[in-house]
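Minutes, project check-in
Item: structure for the 186-residue chain
Input as provided by the requester:
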Amino acid sequence: MRTEYNTPLNSRYSSKEMSYIFSEEKKFTTWRKLWTALAEAEKELGLDITDIQIKELKDNIYNINYEDAEQKEKEIRHDVMSHVYAYGLQCPNAKKIIHLGATSCFVGDNTDIILMKEALYIIRKKVINLIHQLSKFAYDYKDMPTLGFTHFQPAQLTTVGKRATLWIQDLIIDLENLDFVISNLN
């Protein structure tokens, strides 16, 4: 996969966005999205699931009742099932189909993959922006001489721009590795 590396990306990501990706809110809304997608797929396969049940699930994805889940988890000591219970309180018509036929790994593992992939996209965009900035720096200083080093010893002259291209090359290798990892997170 060939990617254009010398174009800056418009979206700037902050540490708040990375923090949100790994927040409790993002985790539990992702669980609810997965349970909703599971119900939709099971309905499509012929299970007795109604549109009303699916709508009820969708309507409560972002309306997480943390207190109910926390209370239930103290009782049963199982985070996934405590959230199944809490979601069921909000979705009485859909209560019996939440998590139907799934294991805890269904939401836990898939959520981990989804969140890691989103985080890697943020890192990828930051690396691309850094490559772009270093490219401009390398061009601006392409003729500025500097002493080269080999094994931390002074060596022949080079340019600041040439040095920057070596940093860029390392970042391109990192970007290619990121692209490989992202494309294999399914």
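Outcome recorded: The first helix runs from residue 15 to 21.
No further action items on this chain.
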